[in-house]
Design brief:
Layout: H1 2-30, H2 43-59
Helix pairs in contact: 1-2
């Protein structure tokens, strides 16, 4: 069960990070602070979202059984 919860939390973190990074990218392109080649759903957004998901997966508390 803890693995399921950790996977669920990391998937949610990935989705939220991807949406936030896409919105940030669109704003930066619209304000002409970023090059037009920096399109939404690019490698930068997916890489950042994967990094956030990895951190969320590693930070999930794990219950240890006593020996």
């Amino acid at each position: 069960m803890p693995d399921f919860v950790a996977t669920l939390l990391s998937a949610a973190a990935f989705c939220l990070a991807l949406v936030a990074l896409n919105a940030l990218t669109r704003l930066l392109v619209q304000w002409q602070l970023a090059p037009h080649e920096m399109a939404p759903n690019g490698f930068l957004q997916f890489g950042g979202a994967l990094a956030v998901a990895r951190v969320a997966y590693r930070r999930t508390p794990v219950r240890r059984l006593p020996h």
